[in-house]
Write the structure tokens for this entry.
Amino acid sequence: MSNLVQIGKKPRSHQRSGGQLGRPRFLPTTREEMQARGWDELDILIVSGDAYVDHPAFGPILVARFLEGRGYRVGVIAQPRWDSPADIARMGRPRLFVGVSAGNLDSMLNKLTAQKKVRSEDQYSPGGRANLRPNRATIVYSNLCRQAFPGVPIVLGGIEASLRRIAHYDYWSDQVRRSILLDAKADLLVFGMGERPAWEIARRLDAGEKVEALTDVRGTAHVKKNRRAWEPIAADPSRFVADRKAVVLPSYEEVSKDKEAFARMSRAFQYETNPHNGRPILQPHGDEAVYFNSPALPLSEEEMDGLYDLPFARAPHPSYANEGIPAFETVKHSIVTMRGCFGGCTFCSITEHEGRVIQSRSEGSVLREVRELSRSAGFSGVLTDLGGPTANMYKMTCKDERTETACRRLSCVHPGICENLVTDHGPLLSLMRAVRNEKGIKRVFIASGVRYDLADRSPEFVAELARHHTGGQLSVAPEHNNPRVLEKMKKPGIETYERFAQAFCQASEKAGKEQYLVPYFITGHPGSTLRDTVDLALYLKRNNMRPRQVQDFIPTPMAVATTMFYTGLDPLTNEPVYTARDLREKRMMKALVFYWDPQHWPLARQALIEAGRRDLIGHGPNALIPFEGSADRVHAAAKGRPRNGGPPRSRDTGGPRPPRGGGRGPR
Ligand code: SF4
């Protein structure tokens, strides 16, 4: 079955969803709302762990709206009760399938911090309330759907399913877990961005195919239930795949006992995530095996435009009338321009989920959304962000399609910017100018992270960023200063950051503006020792930097850095990597970076003693923190505004930032 149907084309059965005129603004969530549309049954039910916000930044809703746009009758059940299947069953049995997603974030990451403490807030829930979704929501919802609708195909999707699709290390239980598809006992798993696979599944089920026959949809996985079905593939992968050999990963049993096998699995998997040449993958689990087709192909510009032109209400469902949804408040006046990332940072899962090929909208499509937003109630003329996973990868591509299709590199910018990468900021500059010149637009900020090694190549971009698009502070993510640690992260050297900081400073001065960089750092990343963190703190002090955006490294499922954390090996080189696994050591590392904040001094002192750097405790220009005692109180009273950090934030959980582009992954 071809995967190349253009998703921007007019849907075959659009009339079934009712006309545009007088149509309710939201997808139905109850039988009454179904009846208001004149529907007696749904074709597809989407179950999500997030509150229902009808906005393209909410991944499950993006796919639901897309399927509705193809003519299917789609309903949404957001954050159902999980003590019985009754809530999920409230709109009746859907005709084609149920799509299950934990929401925009992995449910465990959403609930627990790097220190494995329960977060007090869920940004994707009404009022920021915690406990409105279960742990491992994909598995729980899938079980409920099976009870509610026996025989209806269950299709998993979203970040949690995508990033737990092969055997993986789960930080929160400190265990290697099986593919989530087996634990959820679902029929199919959609990985990556779900529009293309979800539509192919819907079309083929609608045409009368059985779900068991859908074994060749790109971007999906299914289970081969007995050895007869998969052992011949494992024995000779080339015989069973028409055009490309399948890659057989070490089995779940092997990787859960043998860390070297786990690292081998992680490496082999990474090389098959490129949609243009990623091969199918098979991973045995006992008598069963999970089979992954090649990744879905990226969307064209026309297809991206079609997606973002869908009639989103850009608002939370009215049933949340009295409670705001924090993640929506962050994105409601922002515009997504692109998806994907070719950076390949090892601690981040965006490449594994959104793909390494940049998929951008046209300038016209972005402007249409800007105009619509400027007509909406409550919009003051200030766009809070224009970007995506990265602010300045808009329309950047490989120099030609043939080179890109053949390329097996994991990053286009590490260890240096590839000579084939077109780093032209021209299309982005044109977009920035067009948006800020739109009628009704007073300010346009760029809040997505700037990739400074790319920005380094465009003084014009840095000048316009500083003059027009920075509201006093700009987020950038040097992450660390140590070259060995940055190498493990696959990030550019600190000197690149310093060059950008200088250029930004000069551009700000030229624009007559006093503005600051807000640098992000990660502590406890694999490769980083306590001594490396002392060096980082000294670097920060030397440069008068008092960062407030410090992330204690969280090993999220399937990231390369997570493999380093779990196995103690760099899967890309097979070399040993030091990793802080003890929670106290991780806390000490974070305390060092807050060298300027008295509340962290007691732990930072212990860190310095354990690192053999007592010499940095005391007074004078060389000390990092003062002696214990009266100095703590004096400094506590004197604590003021940081020189190049932002204003103090009322709360910083150190947790994930809200999503962009239909499902931003963990940082
Ligand atoms: S050749 Fe270079 S620019 Fe092209 S895809 Fe490969 S790494 Fe990226």
The radius of gyration is 25 Å.
